């Protein structure tokens, strides 16, 4: 078996065989990027640029009172109503909470990247991160991972597997 060294941005290297041997099995992992989210003060004002300049269309607009947020999803006009497609989410706080705190500290901008998994509880348990599951947009089970690279929040959402 050939060994090759993969360089990282921090100047070190990772042996690809060692990496493969220590990586978690991928069968219980992420299936796709679900959405990328931006935190804003006013979802309507923020979505206007994405709609006018990029031609995105609104595919879902929802108030999630349990977490105190308005979630507005945008996707390319030719997307099949967002089904199976990655989307862009605009998150607006309805009052005090984590998103309002984020906006006060960092201002508007990228908040998180969300990945779809088959089972949120199993995914979290297998990674030693149990807890924190909440009902998010579309009424789906969601959770934010406790640790994330480079300060970007990572969310998972439980989506029914297309084969089921």
Number of helical runs?
Answer: 4
Largest sheet: 8 strands, mixed
Report the radius of gyration as a whole number of Å. 18 Å
The low-pLDDT segments are 1-27
* Helix-residue proportion: 10-25%
Number of strands: 10
Q: How do the helices and strands follow one another from N- to C-terminus?
A: EEHEHEEEHEHEEE
The general outline is globular
Overall residue-averaged pLDDT value: 81
Output the strand order for the largest sheet: 4-5-6-3-7-10-9-8
Which structural class best describes the helix and strand composition? alpha+beta
Residues in β-strands, percent = 35-45%
From the N-terminal CA to the C-terminal CA, the straight-line distance is: 37 Å
Question: What would you say about this model in short?
Answer:
This protein is α+β, with helices and mostly antiparallel strands and 164 residues long. The chain has helices spanning 16-22, 43-54, 98-106, 120-126, and strands at residues 5-7, 13-15, 32-39, 56-64, 69-76, 87-93, 109-117, 134-135, 141-144, 153-158. β4 (56-64) and β5 form a beta hairpin.
Summarize the structure in words:
The structure is a single chain. This protein has four helices and ten strands, in the order ββαβαβββαβαβββ. The strands form two sheets. An eight-stranded mixed beta sheet has the order 4-5-6-3-7-10-9-8. Strands 1-2 form a two-stranded antiparallel sheet. A hairpin with an 8-residue loop joins strand 9 (141-144) and strand 10. The radius of gyration is 18 Å and the shape is globular. The protein has helices at residues 16-22, 43-54, 98-106, 120-126, and strands spanning 5-7, 13-15, 32-39, 56-64, 69-76, 87-93, 109-117, 134-135, 141-144, 153-158. The chain is α+β, with helices and mostly antiparallel strands and 164 residues long. The longest helix is centred in the first third of the chain and has 12 residues, at 43-54.
